[in-house]
Amino acid sequence: MSKQFQFKLVLLVLRFVKDQFDDYRESTIGAAFLTQTVTLEDQTTVKFEIWDTAGQERYKSLAPMYYRNANCAVVVYDITQTASLEKARTWIRELQRQADPSIIIALCGNKSDLSARRQVSEEEAKKYADEEGLMWTETSAKTGEGVTEIFTAIGQSLYQSQQARRAEQLPQPRNSR
């Protein structure tokens, strides 16, 4: 029997939902709502309710409305711009301070197809992710590399967390004397 779970996710992504890339696409204004599902190895279906907030500074005051009750967040930085990792760190601190303490946060370096123009090393980003307890990967929205994999990994992590919470809520057997 197939199991299905639904989770709220905040992020920046069109490639994952529509498997599209447009060099000339305008960035999200405010926020966009999308849904997508992934199927895990055991055939469990994870449905993501996705709020794409684009992380723009001018909409920062609205961000708490979107990440309230979020189960996970994907914070994206551009590997070709050092400043974007700093901005990502700011958003991660905000999530750690304001979001649910059990939120799963993934740090995602985008534009891996432009590695010749890299300014943020894999080592630096991975070290930061490890120190903060974040999932980490690099992707390319242009080629699709790594996009499905990060969402499948997030789905697996959410599913395992859900299973652990359920196990904790089960009545514990009494020791007989």
Automatic annotation (TrEMBL):
Signal peptide boundaries: 1-19
GO MF annotations, alphabetized: GTP binding; GTPase activity
Gene3D superfamilies: P-loop containing nucleotide triphosphate hydrolases
CDD domains assigned to the protein according to its UniProt record, in alphabetical order: Rab5_related (cd01860)
Keywords annotated in UniProt: Nucleotide-binding, Signal
SMART domains in the cross-refs: RAB (SM00175), RAN (SM00176), RAS (SM00173), RHO (SM00174)
Pfam families: Ras
Keyword flag Membrane: no
Official protein name in the record: GTPase Ypt5
